[in-house]
Write a structure and sequence with these properties.
CATH architecture: 3-Layer(aba) Sandwich
Shape: globular
Strand content: 15-25%
Largest sheet: 6 strands, mixed
Number of strands: 8
Length: about 130
């Protein structure tokens, strides 16, 4: 499936782990993981961001998938501790634009409006 000319696969299964999306697809992730991105999207963030941390750990440690896991929140109720922790774990964090300013100082925090452009750029940079 393509959205904004970005190929993706929804809810692929990786030995029991089910990330929300893989860009471009599971086959690429398993064959050449550096060319794929895992997207973890949470609508309710309070403690659910920890699920993404656990999933990232399993995918990295057991399945040897590199640091290309991006966390996306659709709400502004995320705490600074969560954003800092995700950043320190080498996850990009996309935050709604209306609350991004309070997290701008955190290395891996990005405004949500950049997500699709960043996915396109990532795909182009890994195409070769």
């Amino acid at each position: 499936m393509d959205v904004f000319e970005i190929e993706y696969e929804k809810n692929p299964s990786i030995d029991g782990e089910k990330p929300d999306f893989v860009v471009p697809n599971l086959v690429t992730l398993m064959r050449e993981p550096i060319k794929a991105v895992i997207l973890s999207i949470k609508r309710e963030v309070r403690e659910r961001w920890r699920e993404s941390v656990g999933e990232a750990y399993i995918l990295r440690k057991i399945h040897k998938i590199p640091d290309n896991i991006w966390f996306i929140t659709l709400r502004c109720d995320i705490e600074e501790y969560a954003v800092k922790t995700l950043s320190e774990l080498d996850m990009r964090i996309y935050i709604p634009d209306e609350c991004y300013e309070q997290f701008r100082h955190i290395t891996k925090a990005k405004p949500l409006s950049l997500l699709f452009n960043n996915l396109l750029q990532y795909g182009k940079s890994r195409a070769h």
